[in-house]
């Protein structure tokens, strides 16, 4: 996927997340955030964490990371293997950090092993 297309998806996703935050933040806070450049908006939102749910905070953190990667020129590259992230993953989630292979490995590594039970 071309970075320009992924960038557009990221901008759209950012707008969707900001629209979902309207209920959690005041109109004045939302107006101040919208006045910023897209890559600065999620850093500003972080200042209002106390008003956000854990799910909203995760979305903000994911978007902040994606915008940082865009600024660094590594957006759409896997954070682990540095290979391009599959188009399908980016279409489904523009903030994806890992390719399918590395994401599966990441999930396996962070999942606690189930204790073996005696029968």
TrEMBL record:
Record's protein name: Zinc finger DksA/TraR C4-type domain-containing protein
Xref: Pfam families: zf-dskA_traR
Top-rank lineage group of the source organism: Bacteria
UniProt domain Zinc finger DksA/TraR C4-type: residue ranges: 75-104
Keyword annotations: Metal-binding, Zinc, Zinc-finger
InterPro entries in UniProt: Znf_DskA_TraR
Stretches annotated zinc finger (dksA C4-type): 78-102
Molecular function per GO: zinc ion binding
